Amino acid sequence: MKKIIKENLLIVFLLTFILVVGSLPAWGDSTNDDNDQTNTSGSNTQITGGYTATTTNNNDGQTNTTTSTTSNTTTSNGSSIPVNSANSPSFSSMSQDVCSMGISGSISTLGLGASVGKHVRDLNCERIKLSKVLYDYGMKVAAVSILCQDPRVHAAMQSAGSPCPWDGKIGKDAQAMWDKYPELRPDYEEYLTKAEAIAKIDERILKEELKQAEEIARLLEEDRIEEEKLAEEKAKLEAEKKKKKIVIDLVPIGNMHD
User: Fold this and answer.
1) Which residues, in sequence order, are CB contacts of 34 under 8 Å at separation 6+?
2) What radius of gyration do the chain's Cα atoms show?
3) If residue 208 lies in a helix (H) or strand (E), which one and from where to where?
4) Which of 91, 124, 212, 223 fits a 20 to 30 Å CA distance from 238?
C-alpha cells in the first residue's frame, strides 16, 4: 500500500515538474553570434540570434539535465538591379507615296529608361515626285527647273553645257543670267570653291608660261648677241681682205716707175 502511494506521488511530482519546466520561456544569448552566411552574387543574408532550452528529467531519484543552444542571425541586403532595356518605337510611312522616314532611339540606365521617335521629311524624294508630275503634265522646263534646285543637278547641268532655266530663259541666255547673278545659284558655295581653285591653277599656269617666255627671250637675246658678234667678226675679215687687195694692187705700179 505504501509502495503504491509512493509511486503515485512520484508520478504526480514528475508531471508537475514537466509542466513547470515546459512553461518556462526560452531566452536568447547574443554572445553566441557566430553563424554568418554571405552571398556575393545577389542579396546578402546574415543569421544572428541565441536560443537556449534546458530540460531536466528526474526518474527514480536520478536527475538528467539536457541543454540545447542555437544561435542564428539573419540580415538581408538587396542589391541594385537595373531596369529593363528601353525599346525604340517603330515608325512606318504607312504609304509608298509619302516622302518621310521614321527615326527613333532609346536609352536606359540603372534607374531610368526612355525612348523617343519622330517622322522626318525627305525633301529629295518630294523634289523627284514633283518633277515627275510636272513632266507628266507636259511642263518639261518646270520639271527641269525644280530638279535644278538641287546643287548637284545644277552643277551637272552646267558641266553638260545645258544650263538650268532662268525665268523662262534657256540655253545661252540662261547662262548669261547665271553668270551675272552667281549668288542665286543653289551651288554658290561650291561654285566659289571651284572658281577659286580654277583661279589658282590659272595663276600657276600663267607664271609657268611667263617663266618659259622669259627663258625663250633670254635665249633669243643670246642668239642675237652671238649673231652680232659673228657679223662684227665677218665685217672685220672683209675689211682686212680689202686692205690686202689694195696693197697687192699698188705694188706693180711702184715697180713700173722704178
Assistant:
1) 71
2) 60
3) helix 188-257
4) 223
Structural contact between residues 178 and 166, judged by C-beta atoms closer than 8 angstroms: yes
3 state SS of 23: coil
In tens digits, the chain (258 residues) has pLDDT values of 555 555 666 665 665 666 555 555 544 444 444 444 444 444 444 445 555 555 565 555 555 566 666 665 555 554 455 556 656 566 565 566 778 877 778 777 776 777 777 878 888 889 999 999 999 999 999 999 999 999 999 999 999 999 999 998 999 999 999 999 999 999 899 899 989 999 999 999 999 999 999 999 999 998 889 888 888 888 888 888 777 776 666 555 545 444
**Domain spans of the chain, in order of start:** 2-35+49-74, 122-186
Does the global pTM surpass 0.90? no
Question: Do residues 147 and 121 lie in contact, with contact meaning Cβ atoms separated by under 8 Å?
Answer: no
The CB density around residue 163, as the number of other CB atoms within 10 Å, is 21
